[in-house]
Automatic annotation (TrEMBL):
One of its GO terms (molecular function) is ATP hydrolysis activity. Residues 50-189 form the AAA+ ATPase domain. Belongs to the AAA ATPase family. The lineage of its organism: Bacteria, Bacillati, Actinomycetota, Actinomycetes, Geodermatophilales. This is AAA family ATPase. Keywords: ATP-binding, Nucleotide-binding, Repeat.
Amino acid sequence: PAAMRESLITYPRVTWADIGGLEHVKSRLQDLVEKPLRHPEVFERIGLSSNLGVLLYGPPGTGKTLLAQAIARESGVNFLPIQGPELFSQWLGESEESVRHIFDVARRAAPCIVFFDQLDAVVPQRSDLEHEGTRAPQRVVNQLLAELDGMESRSQVIVIGATNRMSMVDPAALRPGRFGVHLHVGPPEEAGRSEILRIHLAGAALGDGLTLDEVIAHLVPRTTGLTGADLAFLVQNAKLAALDLDQASPDPRLDIATFDAVLAETARTA
Ligand code: ATP
């Protein structure tokens, strides 16, 4: 029904420009997902299947969800996000039925990207199933694999999964034709951190005479090992700190000392 379809489908606003670093992953997604979705007739003509699934794997906060949102937005297709554990909660009803329902909705909303976040919760290793009992019943796993296998390339539905723990995903789900393309999404190197900081600092009010380039040059060597989510949090905290330090001012500005204070605080609590 239309009401159900509307409740699941979303329209992300994230673009490639909102994602710092990850050049390699972005360009692979453009080749694998965006081109076939934009030019289905070309792929059909040369007999290339656009029936594919992609797994994004890597630590929390590195941009996996952003990438999935951006690929949908930039390809101009519908986006159907599923939080892995939600599949087993009440709102979608019987889990097995939910899996069927999700793919029904996706086919009707095609072209569409279905995004399974925390895929390890949906299709855990078999040994885990035994330990956790009822969390992810085998029939749900089987239903998902059956949906993936039954998908026709011309259906214009592409599945993308994300996980922090690839080793916890049932290998059966990782085979070609299922979530068969594996793209690593890691913490940013220097250039990536610089881009991410530039994105999150856009429009921020800086102290007198201080430039954005100076702030970034100061922060990049001091943020080794931080993820995109950590960097976003750092900028938010710096803005809050500027407010606190300068409550009387109607116009709080960020300067190097504010960032250093926040970094020192982060190091202390880490
Ligand atoms: P999880 O595995 O915990 O779901 P994730 O890898 O999906 O994490 P996201 O949800 O995409 O991470 O990122 C969380 C937030 O961190 C984003 O909303 C964004 O503010 C920031 N962020 C993470 N990575 C990047 C990036 N590469 N560029 C810009 N912002 C980023």
